[in-house]
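Sequence in, structure out. Go.
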Amino acid sequence: MFSLLGENIRIALDSIRTQLLRTILTILIIAIGVFALVMILSAVKSLENTIAGDFSSMGANTFNIQRYDFLVQVGGSGERQKINPIISYRNIREFQDKYEFPLTLTSVSFTGTAGAEVSYDTKKTDPEVQVLGVNENFLSNSGLELQEGRGFNYFDIENNNNVCILGADFMKGLFKDENAIGKTISVRGVKFTVIGVLEEKGSTFGNNQDLRVLIPIQVARGIFTQPNINYNISIKVENAELLESAQEEAIITFRNIRGLSPLEENNFGMQRSDDLLNRVASITGYLEAAAWIISIITIFGSSIALMNIMLVSVTERTREIGVRKSLGAKRNTIATQFLIETILIGQMGGALGIILGLLGGLAFAAIVGFAFTIPWFAMLAATIISFVVAVIAGSYPAAKAARLDPIESLRYE
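Output:
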């Protein structure tokens, strides 16, 4: 049995070599469909994992009060961004004084600049460092971890100490081969003592999260005095069961701070730590569906091409089939030979498509700065689809070859 199977595989490979151009074109058509499936699903998985990793850094059981809000449009035709008045410093001070929900931590912060130059000793960074003014709860509410050193405490913030926490990239630049803790850096001419270094987070959509400096919020307000600064508020709830209640209390408190009447809509946004993940999941769901549709249409076209090439092969090899039958080859043997040939072409196309899809997904992840993820399910699905398509496309040509009359086949020119 195995010797007969091996002989059929050898004959199939010989036939593939003799029809090399047509075979290559068919393999490429199959590969394009599989490539589309594997690459798109690889990119989608990379996007999901990167977003999940970045926004899990928002911290568990947290919600933000922010300027921007996302509203579902009428008819459910997507979302639009609503731009509200800025959240001012007076707003955040009032919120800190009035919001007293139990078992919560309130973090306030703002971005002073995204283009600062940081210097240490005789070395300087490029003017692309992000500087944030934060309070003592910012690290815990943002889910950030320290690589070394310590975070801000209550006295650092209240006493406006000139201390700072650096992103991980500073250890590759300013402080290469040095311990940054205790060193003094300069931001816009103001000296800061480094008390901590954050763990590496990477970048998302071109935003490098490891090239930033965190400083006490009041100190930052003294350095960055531009008008209409927008502040962010983040609340972390220690008990997940109290999250909804804490959010409702925060909305009521901030509505009172804004002076809104009961009939007026909120003029601020509210975002939970899982909201964006749900939004991304819905978007990636559409992308996955598109990947399946594109690949199935392409593979369907390739199955027709594969069937045609096998029908042509049966016609061209009619005399060969007659000789084999006259020497005792059974119908099942002839059918199996052509079916194996079709399956080999299908699997070659599937393998090529998987390789190209993985390379494409890896290139996409490298370009946009995502964490590459191997789409195991897509690879398995592509292998199965290639096999099924080959069996379906090869069944009719194989049956046609098996039904050929040996006497008529020997007369065929």
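Check: The longest strand covers residues 104-116. Residues 2-54+279-411 form one domain.
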